[in-house]
Amino acid sequence: MIINKDTIIQGKKVVLVSYKEEHVPKYHEWMKSEELQHLTASEPLSLEEEYEMQKSWQRDENKLTFIILHKEKFAKTGNEVDAMIGDTNLFFATPEDRICAEAEIMIAEQWARGQKCGWEATLLLFSYAITHLGVKQFVVKISFDNIPSINMFKNMGFIELSKSEVFQEMTFSKVVDEMWISWINMSLGDFNVVDKNKVGCN
Ligand SMILES: CC(C)(COP(=O)(O)OP(=O)(O)OC[C@H]1O[C@@H](n2cnc3c(N)ncnc32)[C@H](O)[C@@H]1OP(=O)(O)O)[C@@H](O)C(=O)NCCC(=O)NCCS
Fold it and tell me: Which of 1, 18, 125, 179 has its CA 20 to 30 A from that of 91?
């Protein structure tokens, strides 16, 4: 999506930035992992295909993508590639439909798991999508065997909608309401959304 091309979201543990060409080689290395392919239901791509994908995601009005940086590491090195730990995305069925979005989260770097980075990155994505895109419902599809992800989304208030034996996955959903927005804000505490091309923050 073009909307977040220059957006930086700063939380307590993570910083979200748009997916840029410089991120592609590391992203490509991550996606060689069969475990990550299985958990994220992704197909392996060649490096050339990954570069094409990065370009198409930036233009695609059905897809919002952020790369997740480890905030502490980024503060130390100032290098986005070194600090990259995963990505988080939203898919919309059509460019006109901003009501319901399918969410994805991946903390690819093992060393960065279990530090609440996945939790914070997902809530920052939800908060951005509610405020800037008007999303009213989130959906996630999770493999039966992905206990960390099932626990995380259940703890965020998601409820099971359906199960597919064929795909071995469950669909969870959360409808956005004022109470949930307050809970997200409370859980996140202070965070900052900056658009590099605009003066001021929101
Ligand atoms: C699922 C995932 C995003 C969690 O991110 P993370 O940063 O490691 O997790 P967090 O530290 O933010 O933990 C958030 C919650 O997730 C759950 N969780 C995380 N790791 C867990 C584990 N090993 N076992 C059980 N529950 C776990 C817990 O509910 C946890 O909250 P708690 O610590 O208060 O109990 C991460 O494991 C991941 O990216 N896995 C590979 C890709 C993937 O499965 N993506 C999701 C596809 S639907």
Answer: 179
CB of 40 closer than 6 angstroms to any ligand 1 atom: yes
Q: Is residue 115 part of a domain?
A: yes
Q: Which amino acid is at 126?
A: F
pLDDT in tens, 88-113: 999 999 888 889 999 999 999 999 99
Residue among 188, 180, 37, 30 nearest 109 (CA): 30
Is the CB of residue 119 below 6 angstroms from any atom belonging to ligand 1? yes
Residue nearest to atom 44 of ligand 1 (CA): 39
- What CATH number is attached to the domain comprising 106? 3.40.630.30
> From the alpha carbon of 35, which atom of ligand 1 is closest?
41
pLDDT over threshold 60, residue 202: no
Q: For the chain, give the percent of residues with pLDDT over 70.
A: 98
Give the separation between CA 63 and CA 53, rounded to whole angstroms.
Answer: 11
